[in-house]
Amino acid sequence: MIDSVLFLEGAMSVEKLQRYREQMRTELDKVVEFWQKYSHDTQYGGFFTCIGKDGKIYDELKYVWLQGRQVWMYCRLYRTMERFNKPEILEAAKSGGAFLRRFARIPNSGSPWKCAFCLTRDGKALKVQRTIFSECFYVMAMDELARVTGDKDMQVKQPGALNTSTIKFSVKIIFLQPHHFAVYQHSGGAEAAQMMDQLVHWVRVDPSGLGKPQLSGDTPVCSMAVPMMLLCLVQQLTEARSGEEVDKYREVGGWCVKQILQHLQRGGTAILESVSSEGKELPGCAGRLQNPGHALEAGWFLLQYGLENGDQELQRTAVDKFMEIPFLTGWDKEHGGLLYFLDVDGYCPTQLEWSMKLWWPHCEALIAYLMAYSHTKEPALLERFSQVYDYTFSHFSDAENGEWFGYLTQQGKVTLDFKGGPFKGFFHVPRCLYMCEKILDSILNKQES
After folding, report:
1. What CATH topology corresponds to 1-14+263-449?
2. Is 46 left (phi over 0), alpha (psi -120 to 50) or beta?
3. Which residues in 280-292 are b (16+ Cβ under 10 Å) and which e?
């Protein structure tokens, strides 16, 4: 009798997983079709990202974050999924990459590697952020583009690009000891790797190249987004590679993990978005801030790193702390969905959008719980995934026009009805659908074999 019950539950589980996979596959096809149809700028290159609910372009500005993300996503789909191995996808990625390489970097910013945040349609720099994130997505784009085109150098010089006389060298960081670096000048090398070296230098040695002055009342802060993003780049640059460069990045990856773990505070009961440079809780509302979506994203980054390196303790921490804590505290028990921001002491967060439900935290939760379930087979994690899945597909997905809405009220109503904007592009939704489809394929293939 017990065996019959277990067999029935197993069959139901397989049926459910197959249904999830079909939904992910169908939705990914629709999302890719939407961006192929509406986002390509055939006149100037690159992509439009300010796209209304029905595909109309409402602003022609181009955001470097989103340009890099779309190049990366197209290349990843082209390289790893047979049904997307199409010349039109590769050509779109190459067009986006050429636009980035020609216009993203701004040599008059004080650093030859600093990228703009926002460009005009024809590539003129409009805004610069004093952060590393435009450069991070530039690295992702260039490395993935190099993988599919075979252009391993990704040199700067090209027709219409920045004159190489303004970029005479790249920064190469030689690791002497865990926290000491020597900087040398050299020419050539892979463009993504050169930019990565500069990013590590800005984060771990000297941030002055970012253009942010050190004010007298400003104390050094560690934002979880920084080591998270560097860890993402480490995984990108080391995937299926070996050698001296990979060993260098492994050291960076270990440093990133330690930095992320510092955000586990209050005796292991809270994930805080920002801590001091020494890993201590900061005073005030900034120190109490929690971002459930970021914590969940960090969770699957850490789980992935732990699996790659055989670190079982890190795997357990990733699931028990960086997935469960933000879910239990961030899930809206009355209306469903993940709240955007929380205050660890229960005060009202000062961010005006704190109670909204945004698309990307739900994408990260889907990846996190499905990845965790695939490796632990713990039924509770599949239940978490199912709970997020039901909310996400019933609230964000637009069956009429395609793609997803990104911004809902706390009650789950669409409040901003565009499909793309300054921060929402072709990335979180397709990355989620792509990764979930891949994970579900793996789970079902193992069960069928």
Report:
1. Glycosyltransferase (1.50.10)
2. left
3. eebeeeebbbbbb
Please, is 182 exposed, middle or buried when counting C-beta atoms within 10 Å of its C-beta (0-12, 13-18, 19+)?
A: exposed
Mind listing the pLDDT tens digit for each residue in 354-405? 999 999 999 999 999 999 999 999 999 999 999 999 999 999 999 999 999 9
CATH class label, 40-157+177-211: mainly alpha
What does the DSSP assignment read for 255-287? HHHHHHHTTEETTTTEE-SEEETTS-BPSHHHH
pLDDT digits (tens, 9 = 90+) for 295-322: 999 999 999 999 999 999 999 999 999 9
Nearest to 366 by CA among 443, 297, 441, 442: 297
pLDDT value for 448: 73
Residue 278: both structure tokens together: 């020494």
Cα dihedral: 182, 186, 189, 195 (round 10): 50
- Report pLDDT for 189: 33
Under DSSP, the state recorded for 107 is: G
* Extents of the domains making up the chain: 1-14+263-449, 40-157+177-211
CA distance 252 to 414: 40
